[in-house]
Amino acid sequence: MESLPCKKMFDGKTAIITGSARGIGREIAIAFARQGANVVINYIHSKDSAYKTADTIGLEGKEPLVIRADVTKRNEVKKLFDNTFSHFGSIDILVNNAGLLEQKPFQEISDYDWDKTLEINLKSTFLCIQEIVPYFKKMNTGCIINIASVGGQTGGDKAPHYAAAKSGVISLTKSFARLLSPIGVRVNAVSPGFIRTDMYYDIISRTPVDDINSSILLGRVGEAAEVAEAVLFLSSDSASYVTGHVLNVNGGLYLGAGS
C-alpha cells in the first residue's frame, strides 16, 4: 500500500517574513518552507541574496514569492500584502524581522541615525501590523511574530537608539496582543541576543569574541536557525494559548553571566 505524505506543520498557510533575504529572516523563511508554508521573501536592497534564498527554498519543493518593498513606507507595505494575497489567496503569518543595527558612541548618534533606526526597526513593525489587520479580519485568525532584541529589554550602551526601537517593538507586541485578540490574532515577540549573522560579524570587528561569550550563560553565540525554531513554535498550534509573550532566545545573555 502506498503511504500517504506526512502532513507538515504549516501546510496551506502563507507566511510573510520582512527583511528575509539574509540572516535571521532567511533562516525563518527556509524553516517555514520546510514545514509546508507558502513563503514570501521580502527585501529592499539585497536582491541577489533574496533570490538565492528563494533558490534554497525551491529545493524544499516550495515556490516562494519574492517581493521588493520598503516596509517603512505605507504604500509599499500595502503592495507587499496585496501581491501576496493575490498570489496565494491568503495571509496567515507575519514575521516582522526587518531591522538595522549600527553601533557607535551615543554622542555620535546623529538625528539621521536616530530617525533611520527608529523607522526601520519600529515604524516598519507598526505599519505592517496596521496594514495586515484587514486581511486577518477576513479570515478571523492570524499570527504575528515581532523580532525584538535583548537590547530592548536591558538597554544598550553601544546602540541606545537601536535598544530604544526594540523596546518599542516589545511594547507594540503587548499592545497589539490586546488590540487584536477580539479577531483571533495572536501577537508575540522573539528576543535574540548574539546570533551568528552579518550583524554579529560586524560587532566582533570591535568587540573581542571572548568578551561576548563570557557574557552569555551558555557560553556561546546562537545560530539563526535557533531563532527560526522559536518563531515556528510561536506561529504553530502548539502555541495557540500564547499571546503578548516575549520569548528570549539569547543563551541567558538577558540574565548575564556574572553573579
Task: Please sum up the structure shown.
Helix content is 45%, strand content 14%. It is α/β, with parallel strands linked by helices and 259 residues long. The mean pLDDT is 92.
Describe this structure in words.
With 259 residues, the chain is an alpha/beta fold. It has a single domain (14-249), classed as Rossmann fold. Helix content is 45%, strand content 14%. It has nine helices and seven strands, in the order E-H-E-H-E-H-E-H-E-H-H-E-H-H-H-E. A seven-stranded parallel β-sheet has the order 3-2-1-4-5-6-7, with helices on both faces. Strand 4, helix 4 and strand 5 (142-147) form a beta-alpha-beta unit. Helix 1 (23-34) crosses helix 9 (224-235), helix 3 runs parallel beside helix 4 and helix 4 runs parallel beside helix 6.
**What is the fold-level CATH name, i.e. the topology?**
Rossmann fold
> Can you summarize the main beta sheet?
7 strands, parallel
In CATH's first tier, which class applies? Alpha Beta
Q: N-to-C terminal Cα separation, in Å?
A: 60 Å
Task: Assign an overall shape.
Answer: globular
Fraction of residues in H or I helices: 40-55%
CATH architecture: 3-Layer(aba) Sandwich
How many helices? The count is 9
Low-confidence stretches: none
Sheet/helix structural class: alpha/beta
Sequence of secondary-structure elements: EHEHEHEHEHHEHHHE
Number of E-type strands: 7
What is the radius of gyration computed over CA atoms, rounded to a whole number of angstroms?
A: 18 Å
For the largest sheet, list the strands in their spatial order: 3-2-1-4-5-6-7
Portion in beta strands = 5-15%
CATH superfamily: NAD(P)-binding Rossmann-like Domain
Tally of distinct domains:
1
Q: On the 0-100 scale, what is the average pLDDT? A: 92
